[in-house]
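Retro notes
What went well: the complex prediction finally ran end to end.
Inputs used:
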Amino acid sequence: MSSPRWIADPLLRVDRLTMRFGGLVAVNDVSFAVGRGDVTALIGPNGAGKTTLFNCLTGFYKPTAGRIAFSPSGLRDESRIEALTASSRRFWRDGGAGLFLLERMPDHEIAKKARVARTFQNIRLFPGMSALENLIIAQHVALTPASGYGFFGLLGLPIYRRAEEKAVAKAEQWLERISLRARANDPAGELPYGDQRRLEIARAMCAEPSLLCLDEPAAGLNNHESAELARLLREIRDRDRVSLLLIEHDMSVVMAISDHIVVLDYGQKIADGAPNDVREDPAVIAAYLGVEEADEAAAEAELERRPPQ
Amino acid sequence: MEIFLQQLINGVTLGSIYGLIAIGYTMVFGIIGMVNFAHGDVFMLSAFIALLLLLLLTQMLGLPAGLAFVPVLFGSMCLTALWNFVIERVAYRRLRGSFRLAPLISAIGMSTFLSNFVTVTQGPNNKSIPPLLNKIIPLTSGGDYDVTLSYKQILIVAVTAVLLAAFWFVVQKTSLGRAQRACEQDAKMAALLGVDVNRTISLTFVIGAALAAVAGSLFLLQYGVVKSSDGFVPGVKAFTAAVLGGIGSLPGAVLGGLAIGLVETLWGQYFSSDYKDVAAFSLLAVTLIFMPSGLLGRPDVEKV
């Protein structure tokens, strides 16, 4: 059996990441990798440290310790990662897609340079702007130079108009894909909840990320909407070739689309593997269902048997 | 009736000037949630810049006053914008993210600095320009009162309308305006999507100052005099206009400006001109009792 993609061809690697808030250890010495082109799910009970980990990846928190290496073209060259770690630089961009140490970068640089996009557990669209505008603003980086920082736009120069038309076309294409074309001009805040979720994903995709991080994309969705979401995420992986990392509680979604599952509990990694292996794992079952005292000893023995990660 | 019509015209003229200043208040409040108390003094400063430019062009270069007004307006807009850009860099940017009152206090300090700076360099007295554009159009004749419309008034309202239209276009249709609205709603998220928040805020100050400079130049044209303490009262009135219209709302700022201008002139005509400021501020108080978020402001509904 060939080794799975997250070992053979990772694009993100988290090494011994720890995040402390005062005396509370939210993430404790966690290591895992995300395979290029995979859908990776990060699961675990409430308070397991999933969102904290996400916030470290996307630059909202500066981790207490550990390394987060990221390269859109894959992290095969170990010596390069070590060399960058030893230097004081945040990233290298010499040729190819570059190599980034996300724990050293501020959030907007992670979004702009490393092209890691994210969505939020509590949706963060621009509620007063139309659905279409929400998607256009995500293309702001590409649009700003063409608009001469606003002045060409004011004059209506063709260079700006062409760039603007391109941005609108892309935004409309995405509205089509999430079946919101008819509501393009409605304020995003007035859309139904499920539509807002899909719109936020589309907005993240308009920024052309190489890794898309989704924080509970199926939260609050009904069965039909969840199925729709799973279809969209699979399409993003297969058609747009974007790797996905998601936090999710809805197991039907996780099992339907994940290639790889990482399980956290109390800030520690308790399982890591293909969906079928993880599903059968006694430690995972214990963490999720709670255990009788007799079973607890067995679960603990199981945990001890594992080498510390 | 004739007098009412005349005061209506005067009120709209005054209201246009208030509206232009009020936009600066409302935009800055919208984007960084700060009341820029120095904005009235930026307006006064722009009137002085216009005055100096006008005297320079007419006295030293001998341009006819009517012709000189266009470069004066443009020059005043550019220089005032530069001033406000520097003010934001020096006095506000470093305080962003500290506690809420810090930039406010800094703005009050900047206001004091500007008015004193102008007092020291230009003297505390009225500075005047030779009268410009004195032609008037009689609208009615033969009654006991002749209603007139001066070229100045037409110019003021026309310039205001054209600039507001251009400004509206920028905010609604260009990527700069889009970035500005995005920063207003969620600056952190906008930054994540690649919007340069600091630059967007700088540009907001630049645009606000340019509009205040238009108001300053038109104020100078209309009244012919300006002095260093002239920033305070129009500034407070324009701020009132912004709050009345719903702070954060651009059409609200213009509507509020017109309302304040009209109330002030009409009250001055029919009741007592000593109490016209009282009337303007009372209007604000009464409106806020019944419409706490102003005429066009949207109430902040927190979703739970």
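What we learned: Chain A touches chain B at residues 58, 107-108, 111-112, 118, 124, 126-129, 133, 136-138, 140-141, 143-144, 147, 149-150, 153-154, 160, 164, 203, 207 (CB under 8 Å).
What to try next: split runs per interface for comparison.
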